Amino acid sequence: MRALTWHGKRDVRVDTVPDPTIRDPDDVIVKITTTGLCGSDLHLYEVLGAFLDPGDILGHESMGIIEEVGPQVTAVKPGDRVVIPFNISCGSCFMCDQGLQSQCETTQVHEQGSGASLFGYTKLYGQVPGGQAEYLRVPFGNSLPIPVPGGPADDRFIYLSDVLPTAWQAVEYASVLPGGSVVVLGLGPIGDMSCRIAAHRGARTVIGIDLVPERLERARRRGFHTLDLRECGDGLAEAVRELTDGRGPDAVIDAVGMEAHGSHIAAAAQSMTTHLPDTLAAPLMKHAGMDQLSALHTAIDLVRRGGTISVSGVYGGALDPMPLLTMFDKQLQLRMGQANVWHWVDDILPLLSNGDPLGVDDFATHRMPLEQAPDAYEMFQKKQDGAVKVLFTP
Predict the structure, then answer these.
(1) What value does the mean pLDDT of the chain take?
(2) pTM greater than 0.85
(3) Helical spans, DSSP H, in 205-257
(4) How large a percentage of the chain has pLDDT more than 90?
(5) Which of 144, 114, 141, 117 is nearest to 129 (CA)?
(6) Widest CA span of the chain, in angstroms?
(7) Are the C-beta atoms of residues 2 and 359 closer than 8 Å to each other?
(8) Contact 42, 314 (CB under 8 A)
(9) What is the pLDDT of residues 100-152, one digit of tens each?
């Protein structure tokens, strides 16, 4: 089959690789019909090479048609249409029973001290082959795939793999009450969708902040307040307070993570690890890494006293300095974590089957053949051509 594989920093290629096969009796093989390019895939493209091997198959946002099932699979059958959650969860352990599928005890990567395994996402999360490919082996075939109806195009359901549950959890963790206010830092796919979900759930004031003109305009067209970070500069906090009765928003969602602009030292430290042997780079990233924390510090500055910060952007460093005195003084609440995909399916799926209130049908900005994936990674990394969400067709 053809699959998108990692070969080095900013070096991904579409190669011919062996087809996946049934290994465990509850495995299924899915013929991928649509697979997405996620912002966190750019971390693999840039700085997490120490945890990858050449030839690793990338991608964790996938859906398709069941091609083959193992002998113990009864919940789905060949021909069924399914979405594959990005986190690999058994559905029956203690953590899964708590709705914490991202912490699944069956697939936790103990040797790395990590939570549940993820498709296509480094040795830190199990080094499981990903879904930017023609076929994908999916374990736990009776509980992991999400069955979806036929009819609408893949665009209607593909975001159930990651974007929708990640954004839904971000809004849920932000505790935005009906009539409340929320700032979303970063208007990439997760930030954009977080704005839509917050408004759908009753937020009165939704403010999106970014520095990419096309992303700001995209949010503005949906009726959200937008602030251009380049124009506001040091006046950002004042501009936000003018829109929130002078006290700041009830909640801030950090949808940026370690891609935040502003820390040249952290950026240099991250870049340095890509030039080191894996035996040196991996411990440095895990135990002495530093993130670019400007987005999180901005969230702490903007949120009102007694407010909530929800972090959906990925951070990776271990020695990140946090302004704990300010956080304590402002009596802030901070929630974060990988999305627990299956936990939110019952909330989200009805919205995909009854009209399109979140605008998923035209959410993608680019649809490309998988063979063009290397060009898409470069375009997305450089924020060219208005790229916000890229979908591949294998």
Answers:
(1) 90
(2) yes
(3) 213-221, 229-232, 236-242
(4) 78
(5) 117
(6) 62
(7) no
(8) no
(9) 999 999 999 999 988 999 999 999 999 999 999 999 999 999 999 999 999 99
162 close to 255: Cβ distance less than 8 angstroms: no
Q: Strand locations in the chain, DSSP E?
A: 2-8, 11-16, 28-37, 62-69, 81-84, 135-138, 146-147, 181-185, 205-210, 225-228, 251-254, 308-311, 333-336, 366-369, 390-393
The predicted-structure confidence for 287-332, as pLDDT tens digits, reads as follows 444 445 678 889 999 999 999 999 987 665 544 567 767 777 788 8
Q: How far from 80 is each of 27, 40, 113, 144, CA to CA, in Å? A: 14, 29, 35, 14
- Residue 35, amino acid: T
Rounded Cα gap, residues 314 and 383, in angstroms:
18
Q: How far apart are CA 258 and CA 184, in angstroms?
A: 15
Residue 80 phi, psi (nearest 5): -70, 145
Question: CA 296 → CA 80, 216, 225, 283, distances in Å?
Answer: 42, 20, 20, 24
The secondary structure of 63-105 as a DSSP string is: EEEEEEE-TT--S--TT-EEEE-SB---SSSHHHHTT-GGG-T
As given in the structure block, the two tokens for residue 243 are 């829109």
State the amino acid at position 162 in one-letter form. Answer: D
Q: Where do we find the tokens 């019909």? A: 33
For residue 26, give the DSSP letter: T
Is the CB of residue 213 less than 8 Å from the CB of residue 383?
no
**315/319 Cα distance (integer angstroms):** 11
